[in-house]
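Table 4 source record.
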Amino acid sequence: MFDVNKIRSEFPILQTEVYGKPLVYADNAASTQKPIQVINSISELYSQHYGNIHRGVHYLSQKSTALYEGARETVRKFINADKLAEIVFVRGTTEGVNLVASSFLDPIFQPGDEILISEMEHHSNIIPWQMLAERKRAKLKIIPLLENGELNLSVLPDLLTEKVKLVAVSQMSNSLGTINDVSIIIDQAHGKGIPVLIDGAQSIAHMPIDVQAMDCDFFVFSGHKIYGPTGIGILFAKEQHLLSMQPYQGGGDMILSVSFEKTEYNEIPYKFEAGTPNIAGAIGLATALDYVSDLSITAIDAYEQELLRYATQQFTQIDGLRIIGNAPKKGSIISFVLEGIHPHDVGTIMDLEGVAVRTGHHCTQPVMDFYHVPATTRVSLSFYNTKAEIDAISSAIIKVKELMG
């Protein structure tokens, strides 16, 4: 039984009142809230076990090291990576993408080469490739959007030319909710010997992830999108790629030996983890992944799909509301515009009703340009949301219409 009331009791912030009204938190695509188990794991580390990891011989260092490396194993199991060495701790999805751009693609990228991304990408999966392309006198190619928010994969065979050295696409759109069939992209790219990076920032919290079955070369996600802390994320990369890649940053912990003449780098994945890492973040992330696993990601997906259906039904009954993106396969995200009312005004008034939503371009300005809108209001739902809260969101939208005429 999926007991949403019990789940809600485990998220302290959900008991908050905003302007005297119960908080309705519907900004989960930006960042999820944290269960007490995650909060306690971080507090316990700092109050009972904290020491800097690796090489320390004292008890606290060894305890922290065991928890940190145990977190790596938790991540490996959660995404079903083949080897522990394929899990690299980073600050988040953005750093993971930048690491691949700098350490994998940059050394092999030549003038005239191409990177293939899609029109729905988050800026974090556009700008690093754009910067590299400008530096190397190369170019970006774009998989176009269709009006319903799906990618037009019919053009993929024509886009996958010998000039393409990497494909980088999101598994789930943060602004439209569209779930892309990445298996088609990966199969076709691999058929031409092209590696693929999957941006899993949104998908990680909403569906089972199996990187071996997916057969992606790289997979990146952020801890704060899946009920963990900020400042921690994961780059999965196939072992053969990590072995061939040069370090992204230099410093402590990514070395075996240093002299003024030569530095010998550490083994993978440590050669990509320079400096003192986010120890508490890694441990908090592992706790969050265990929490999600205990609930069952398939049960979470089923419940969130029920919420999505209910919210879509409720919102489509509101005059003047247009949902942006109606792909048949969606995660629990609804972006909309209200006729004649700017999304920032929508969000501000909804906030006064206790409803937290996100307004703006959601770091997907090309998507906004495609739909000819400056911004949208985005409702993004989690397994701790309820149908009663969706009713409250609908009432807040109606209040906006009443106040703004």
